[in-house]
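Minutes, project huddle
Topic: does the predicted pose make sense with adenosine-5'-diphosphate bound?
PN asked that the exact inputs be recorded in the minutes so nobody has to dig through chat later. Recorded below.
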Amino acid sequence: MFRRILIANRGEIAMRLIRCMKEMGIESVLAYSAEDADSLPVQMATESVCIGPAAASASYLNQAALVEAAKAASCDAVHPGYGFLSENADFAALVRENGMAFIGPDPETIRLMGDKEKARELMKKNGIPTVPGSDGLVDTADEAVRVADSLGYPVLVKASAGGGGRGMRRASCRDEVMAAYQDARAEAQAAFGDSSVYLEKEIVRPHHIEFQILADRYGGIVQLGERDCSMQRRRQKMIEEAPAGCLTPRLRAKMAKAAITAAKASGYVSAGTVEFVVDQQGNFYFIEMNTRIQVEHCVTEMETGIDLVREQIRIAAGMKLSVRQTDIHPAGHTIEVRINAEDPQQAFAPSPGTISFAHFPGGGGVRIESAVYSGSRVSPFYDSMIAKLIVHAPGRQEAIHKMRAALEELTIEGVRTNINYLYLMMFQRDYLLGQFDTSFIEENTEKILKWEKACRKKAGLTG
Ligand code: ADP
Ligand code: ADP
Ligand code: MG
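Predicted holo structure (tokens), as shared on screen:
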């Protein structure tokens, strides 16, 4: 087993990793930016090393500085968390070249699955349904129009290197294809330094259903059930839950099998997620694979009782999976919400600043993942997600009631948050009935924001 692991990340996921390493008797070395000098993970880690200034490009994305810090601190492995360098094949390779383990899949697998168009081709070859789309990359606007016409509208122009909802544009008719093509390319070039795009037919009102996978180096591979991540705003997940009410046992089994096939086809080792969209008729289509620990991994942990980060670390250290498929029995119902420092009333603009007071809910079945404390600062330099609140209960209704109670208790002052917005979401009739798809949040936000404004006014809060 490893003795010391470098954490190349920050915020809540850094805390999650440090806690797990403590439990495993492994020392944690946190690489942090000058901006994060006062952050909780800096205090919690065994050792902390400043690797550069605030800008991510100079710190959390600075491969050379991270590898140097890891070597100087005698680490034997690097955990990238999610975001930042977690899906960067070059970084994974660099860590290895320097004699350390990268806690994630092999660089070749990251490269292959990071190219969403290539991943799509590989899935097709392995008999996994993919969304009807272009045959390979689309290189000119004229070709984009031709392909879109033949697919039928609406279509999505998607960046091969895309992630986090970026590099994707919709065209609802022929006139919009040109602009969608150019905008997607430009955004992908700016965000990922790669402008390649492909086309997919847009599935109407789908569910986003993903399966969690774990695989070791010895052919051991298991799936830990699904998560329904259809509650999205601008193609970014906001609320995630398991199990997914839209799946019949038969469909779940078919998708689980496809997820295992997908992982095997890519030579997958470590924790990973296979993402699908499911249409209203119950047809499912592969969209992409995320080759890292995901933001919403805790949902699966609450359902199965399996610590995914621990498994990731064990696998990277050359150990076999500690669980067999027959040991995995997801139970009860889990819901996770992402708490962001943002102002829903100002188009969800980030709201950085100092947190004057923070109180987190507790009790049975309530889990908080956060690096926030009273007096801590929310930096404008990084992602606005400041906490995840996860609840687990025997059934969905009980989980929703637990989530409401926990959100009522959760208090974060000093910055604007989406707490009230999420709370009001827990009262939407169709959500309660389990009748939602990826359009739900977009369609209900205006109503909820009006409601939130009225509540604030009634409570005597200005602004
Ligand atoms: P996931 O696929 O794990 O659900 P999302 O699709 O919501 O995650 O987000 C994708 C990407 O958005 C992440 O891989 C990361 O690049 C970025 N991201 C989201 N939250 C954070 C965060 N707290 N810190 C850094 N990056 C983040
Ligand atoms: P990213 O790499 O940014 O996570 P994805 O390919 O996973 O991009 O797509 C992000 C979201 O966009 C999905 O969760 C889903 O809600 C929506 N989406 C993606 N592809 C399609 C499609 N073909 N039809 C309908 N919705 C889609
Ligand atoms: Mg995705």
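Observations noted during the meeting:
- The chain has three domains: 4-103, 132-201, 207-458.
- Residues 174-192 form the longest helix (19 residues).
No decisions taken; revisit at the next huddle.
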